[in-house]
Write a structure and sequence with these properties.
Layout: E1 9-23, E2 38-51, E3 54-67, E4 70-86, H1 90-119, H2 132-138, H3 140-145, E5 151-157
Helix pairs in contact: 1-2
Length: 158
Amino acid sequence: MADSNPTPVFQIQRVYLKDLSLEQPNSPQILLEQAQPQVDINLALGAEPVADGIYEVAVTATVTTKVNDKVLFLVEAKQAGIFEIRNIPDEQLQPIIGIACPGIVYPYLRAIVSDVCTRAGFPPVHLTELNFQAMYEAQNPQFQNTGPGEESKIVTTA
């Protein structure tokens, strides 16, 4: 006899670095400047189905650091995870994809950005902790209209 109410499943299949880029377009001349750099941080969330009950959720950070309107360095990192999500009611699926999954992936992204900046010879850029639940609730109407594969944008300035 088949179970008419299957057990909900939420499993992390894999967390991985999907894309990483570092640019220092004005080196070495800009490294001699002593001015305080301006740091802009842009974050984006993306989610798309990979197979039945399997979703890829990605968080992308773009860190642009300028000195006197010249780019000192630019880091772009995209950390992703593959999640198995099955037998979850539709009204709970979007919050899981928009809150729980990015919350799992984001700490890895924070570590990558900090490490890349340090390895490039700069002080680390520490991405702030994020409350994905508050962001989801604030963007809920927009998030509901975002289709699979589209990204929800978050912009911050440090």
